[in-house]
Write a structure and sequence with these properties.
Layout lengths: L2 E5 L2 E4 L4 E8 L8 E6 L6 E6 L10 E3 L7 E6 L4 E6 L8 E6 L10 E6 L1
Parallel strand pairs: 2-10
Antiparallel strand pairs: 1-3, 3-8, 4-5, 4-9, 5-6, 7-8, 9-10
């Protein structure tokens, strides 16, 4: 059974940083593309960043939404079955619930709330 557990969210001031984690289980993590999404109140869920599968313990090619490019970094640790989202230069418009997901599975975690105050 696929499980995704996000953590690391919180309340931070504008310009601050947070590191989100997503622990995955129930599938061969290293072979799967992983993504971070976010959903702000009243808005649709949007794709934030993706990292490709990797045969090494880390790495993989990455892509980002224009709104976070240069501020967010997605990474993975295949030994820990975990994908991360390092967020720097946070803005109030980054406030949302953040989720991780793999497009191979219709499975979502509970998400982690990120709130950025101005």
């Amino acid at each position: 059974q696929v499980q995704l557990v996000e953590s690391g969210g919180g309340l931070v001031k504008s310009g601050g940083s947070l590191k989100l984690s997503c622990a995955a289980s129930g599938f061969t993590f290293s072979t799967k593309l992983m993504r971070w999404y976010r959903q702000a109140p009243g808005k649709e869920r949007e794709l934030v960043a993706s990292i490709s599968a990797s045969i090494t313990s880390a790495g993989g090619s990455t892509t980002y939404a224009d709104s976070v490019k240069g501020r967010f970094t997605i990474s993975r640790d295949n030994k820990k079955n975990t994908v991360y989202l390092h967020m720097n230069g946070l803005k109030p418009e980054d406030t949302a619930v953040y989720y991780c997901n793999s497009p191979y599975f219709n499975s979502w975690g509970q998400g982690t709330q990120v709130t950025v105050s101005s």
